[in-house]
Amino acid sequence: MTQAPGSAGTIRRAVGTVAAMLAATTLLGGCGPKSEPAAEPRTSPKEALLDAVPDGTEGRFRFSGQDSSSAVTGRIDPESKAFEINAALPPDKDGITTKTSFLLIGDEIWMKAKFSGQPGLPKFPDKWMKLDRAKLTGDAVPTYDGADQGNAGPLIDAATSVEEQGPGRYAGLIDVSSGNAAKVLEDGEAAALGEAAKQVPFTAVVGPDGHLTSLTLKIPAAGKRKAYEYVVTYADYGSTPKITAPTGGATTKAPALAYEMLNS
Predict the structure, then answer these.
(1) What are the start-end ranges of the H helices in the chain?
(2) Phi, psi of 197 (to 5 degrees)
(3) Nearest C-alpha neighbor of 264 from the set 7, 4, 1, 17
(4) 198 and which of 8, 109, 122, 175 could share a cystine (Cβ 3.0–4.6 Å)?
């Protein structure tokens, strides 16, 4: 396969970054389901907000998210333990843009990958490439571990103050350096924020159906990293199409290069 000089390692790093992001905690791969419901009805704003976080009982829904370096969209199908994830990374230092999608249904997984920004970059089929998990190592691809793929639950659980500002509208402060919340941001980011990590402002919106529709954290600047918004949105609860396995001409066997990149 023709490749631009030195591009192979760059491509592997790019795919690895996306795969690690999806397999770990940034905008995906929730730190676990929300807390079990209390014996008595929740009454505080924080408890009400936690109660709105998706736990798999709401049916299928769509989600999107963004942080300082990536954007993600997709669908969640809790009943089938399935999701579709589409991630995009901005151009890296070599000018290469990476777009990657994963489709997971139970233990089966497919991937799409597209690269641009340099001549001679590897080209994959514009189809779902079926992956063999036996050929994958480490955390190369994501797994289904709950409906809250945007990690709203761990973040809200770390809130030190929550106020209801109107029907379905909340605001407060989150300590992103505590508990599972510290695992949501990129590696070392919470530590780099110092004391500011303990008082990160957030807003959240809960729809009329009682389900969380958005969570926005205003992450302050730290070192060379500019201030940005960590945003999670959930939508179309119960009306999102069922996730099904690609068939026929929509799928193909993953080539060796796909495994080489994912396992790097």
Answers:
(1) 7-23, 45-52, 152-157, 189-193, 256-262
(2) -65, -20
(3) 17
(4) 175
| Distance between CA atoms of residues 229 and 70, nearest Å | 11
Spatial neighbors of 11 by CB under 8 A, at least 6 apart, are 3, 96, 98, 115, 121, 122, 261
Q: DSSP assignment, residue 254? A: P
Helices (H) and strands (E) in the chain, counts: 5, 12
Q: Report if pTM > 0.85.
A: no
Spatial contact of 132 and 143, defined as CB atoms under 8 Å apart: no
**Token output for 143:** 């797994």
Helices (H), 87-193: 152-157, 189-193
- Asked whether residue 106 carries a pLDDT value surpassing 80, the answer given is yes
Instruction: Give residue 112's identity as a one-letter amino acid code.
Output: K
pLDDT tens figures, 135-182: 988 777 888 888 998 999 999 999 999 999 999 999 999 999 998 898
Please state, in angstroms and rounded to a whole number, the distance separating the CA atoms of residues 114 and 108.
Answer: 21
CA distance 32 to 45: 21
Backbone φ, ψ for residue 21 (5° rounding): -60, -45
